[in-house]
Design goal:
By secondary structure, the chain is α/β, with parallel strands linked by helices. The chain has ten helices and nine strands.
Amino acid sequence: MFEKDCTTISIVTYNSPDIFNSLKSLQSELRDSKAYKIVIYDNGSSEEYKKKLREFEPFVALVFSSENKGFGHGQNAILLNSQSNYGVIFNPDILVTKNAMDEAVQLLKENDKLAAVSPKILNQDGTIQYLVREKLTVFDYFLRYIPIKFEKRLAKFECRNLPEDKASIIRMGSGCFMVIDIQKFKEIGGFDERFFMYFEDNDLCLRFEKKGYRILYTPFISVIHLYAKEAHKSSKMFRIFVHSMIQFFNKWGWKLF
């Protein structure tokens, strides 16, 4: 099988403990398949962590960086240099079946206007993580950090009204798991590496849209995301989140409401 016929699964990690569960799951799903190639870009993790990653060779290809230049940088290092037709932007905390990935790739093959397919993202208990976005405003992000709840506004912000019985064209899907057309990804230059972490997926989707391509959300394909919500727990990650948010609105325009 030629490399272009293999789908590249692109994983960027920095000392993420969940990646080992993800890799064990992928081993179970893909052990008899040559249709997928897994590449891991390590963003300067500890030596002990890198040693554990090496235990998964040659099932995965490993790229080690001496410093952490961010999620988008790592994804670009893999995907912009890939010869595959299709790729999977894959967080190190994702559990997914081969069938789910096969179906997403098939959707891209059937529609040349699609740049990416975004599945339903689930918690481990089966509840939905509402990560699709139609638009981003400062007010909506402010609401997430105050005790007063504006449920209707939050539901609209999180696109909770997407139908469950058909696929939908959306503006922004989640970069925790997204199946992409790599040629279209290369056409727009991949991720904007000025976003160290957070908002780089929103920016990517909007640049696909600006180029005339579409993002498809399908409720018929699902993955499990072991969501840590680090920006809610760590002051350092919250500062990175705010910095990226400012970068995003500086780039795309400040929308207060």
